Amino acid sequence: MTEIKLKQVRKSFGDVEIIHGIDLTVESGEFCVFVGPSGCGKSTLLRIIAGLDNVTSGAIEIDGETVNNVSASARGLAMVFQSYALYPHMNVYKNMAFGLENSKMPKPEIDRRVREAADMLKITDYLHRKPKALSGGQRQRVAIGRAIVREPKAFLLDEPLSNLDAELRVTMRKELAALHANIGDTMIYVTHDQTEAMTLADKIVVLQDGLIEQVGPPLDLYNNPQNVFVAGFIGSPRMNLIEATAGQNAEGWSLNDTNLSVSIPGVDGLTDGARCTLGIRPEHVSISTDGAGHTTARVAFAEQLGGETYLYCDVEGLPQITVHQPGQLPVVKGETLALNFELENMHLFDANDQVIVNKVKG
Amino acid sequence: MAETSPQTRSLATLITTRRGGDRLHWSDVFTYTYLFFGVLLMFGPVVWLVLSSFKTPAGLIEFPPTFLPLGQIEVKVEGYDKPLPLFEVDMEDGTTKQLAQVRRIGIVSQMVDPKNPGEKIKVPINQRTKVREFRMALENYTDPLERFNFVQFLQNSVIVTVVATLVTLLINSMAAYGLSIYEFRGRNAIMLFVICTLMIPITVILVPVYLVVTQMGMINSLWAVILPGAATPTGVFLLRQYMLTIPKDLIEAARMDNASEWTIYAKIVLPLAMPAIAVLAIFSIMWRWNEFLWPLIVLNRSEVYTLQVGLNAFQGELDVQWHYILAMTVITLIPVVVVFTFLQKFITTGIASSGMK
């Protein structure tokens, strides 16, 4: 059980600062996912925690102990690399035993741990194969097994599923979740895939340009994004983000733009004539049956998946609006639809992209 | 193009492969001619050397030279103590007969028929030709080994080659590890500096190195040959370039796995750099085995001679013992050929992935 704490961590490569002061606590036993677009510094942050990179300033604490000057090997963490980094000249058993041999553990104990981990990961049959004779999924298991046998304070996983095909990724994702439930250790997981983040995490850390955008449980981030970036990043397909101008009139407030007019109840923080961004998730856009709606759109193309339907609609002067509806809709390409946005689930962001309100009504 | 299934390809199909179908394309003719000359150019001298090494001194200076080592057949004839050389003679009546020569007087040779030893026949020397058979002069090999202490030379050469190669591999791989795995300011400058030393010819540093070796009291010991050349810039470069291709993740994984730097070097980097190390081993063995100038300078007593220096002893100012030189040259070739045969599969992989030529 390990708590990892970052305090004002900064990292520069030469003159370029990559991480701009990050404060974060990863609770003991937590599955924490760092997510963000490529180049946001999430891998660098993980390497800093691992001890493979030094911080420029700030402190890393593991169980209350500052480990800035402790080498990677002495931090007691285990890391799973994106490339798996299995030693190609050693068989699976040796790969898993290598770390234990280095810490001068007695042979029977090594053997016990390796076999136990192999059993857990169902790789017992491959123990004497070389990594090149394994499939991607098997290599992945070995890489995880190599981390497990060490019984580390915490696991660091750097995009461990990104080299697998889509189907295997889903399977391994479930297995990882099961593994975490099983061993209950602290895990820090880096990914650029928000689906992985949503499905695996106890806590998601959304990073952009070396800064934390938001930290929270998956659904909290989904329901209450604190800014436009998180709103757009979490959720698939992404949230519709439409810029509009707020206006006050006799009946109340409305958000207006070309071909758009949404009447909303009064909201704190909104000023007359201010530019703002309206955010609405595809599943919260409904098709008006009476022909009157917040906007009128033409279907650019429709994806009928059987169980659900995605519509991509063009509105002149606005970004494309995605509509997600359950079931099969009798909609064809080129059709004109009146769309309504559910005010209960509408998010509103100010001109600085920070949230004003996450539920415009209710 | 031909199908590429390496299992079903035999040497026979390989050397009869044609460009197109049954007909012989002009490029087939060109290619095979070119390749044939290539083979002749490469192997001709070696084959000639090996065959000549079995010839007697007389056979070597013979003109026109024979391809195979031949020796004249001698027969025992009744009434003569020594065996007599056998000749084929064109008789005056037009027949040919095999006669043994008793002695030669000017242009006339006195001969005897082995079947009828009583009668002597006089034959002009241009009417007889030697009767010869394939015979190998093995004494070319045995004599130097017995008389000239060649076993000692061989032993010295083996010691120098093996020890020097081991020291070279150790030192160079450690230097290469430092220059490839660690990232530090000036790393490339140091590498450049190492490479620059390649441009200094050995003849320039001959005297300074000799002085150093003398001061250290190593003259006439094998260490004088082993140590000065142990750290080769070529080796450092070759290994370093190869080690740069080892994924950084592996090194970091090992660091996370509690491995010390020594463990990473010995258990991760060395095994993975094996192809490059094999290439360097081959190079080092060839360099050391064939090294001549430096051993000649620092080794002055025959007990410490290496093979190459020992060979030089057969080459006097006035008399060159070609038959011994050729035979011992063949012996000096053997280890290099053996090493090459066993390690050659590493060469292509090693060179291909280290970017060396």
Fill in the keyword field for this structure:
heterodimer; A: alpha+beta; Rossmann fold; OB fold (Dihydrolipoamide Acetyltransferase, E2P); 6-stranded mixed β-sheet; 6-stranded antiparallel β-sheet; elongated; B: alpha+beta; MetI-like fold; 3 domains; two-stranded antiparallel sheet; disordered N terminus
Q: Which structural category do the helix and sheet elements of chain B fall into?
A: alpha+beta
By CATH reckoning, the class of the largest domain in chain A would read Alpha Beta
CATH topology of the largest domain in chain B: MetI-like fold
N-to-C CA distance of chain B = 28 Å
Shape of chain B: elongated
Biggest β-sheet description of chain A: 6 strands, mixed
What class would the helix/strand composition of chain A place it in? alpha+beta
Contiguous uncertain segments of 5+ residues of chain A: none
Question: Which regions of chain B have little confidence, pLDDT < 50, spanning 5+ residues?
Answer: 1-5
How many individual β-strands of chain B? 8
Assign the CATH class of the largest domain in chain B. Mainly Alpha
In terms of topology, how is this protein built?
The complex is a heterodimer of chains A (362) and B (357).
Chain A: E1 4-13, E2 16-26, E3 31-35, H1 42-50, E4 57-62, E5 65-66, E6 77-80, H2 92-102, H3 107-121, H4 136-149, E7 154-158, H5 166-183, E8 186-191, H6 194-200, E9 203-208, E10 211-216, H7 218-223, H8 228-233, E11 240-248, E12 253-257, E13 260-264, E14 275-280, E15 285-287, E16 295-304, E17 308-314, E18 321-326, E19 336-341, E20 347-349, E21 355-357
Helix pairs in contact in A: 2-3, 2-4, 3-4
Chain B: H1 11-16, H2 26-52, H3 57-61, E1 70-72, E2 74-75, E3 84-90, E4 96-105, E5 108-113, E6 116-124, E7 128-130, E8 132-134, H4 139-147, H5 150-181, H6 187-196, H7 202-215, H8 223-226, H9 233-244, H10 248-256, H11 261-272, H12 274-290, H13 293-298, H14 307-312, H15 322-354
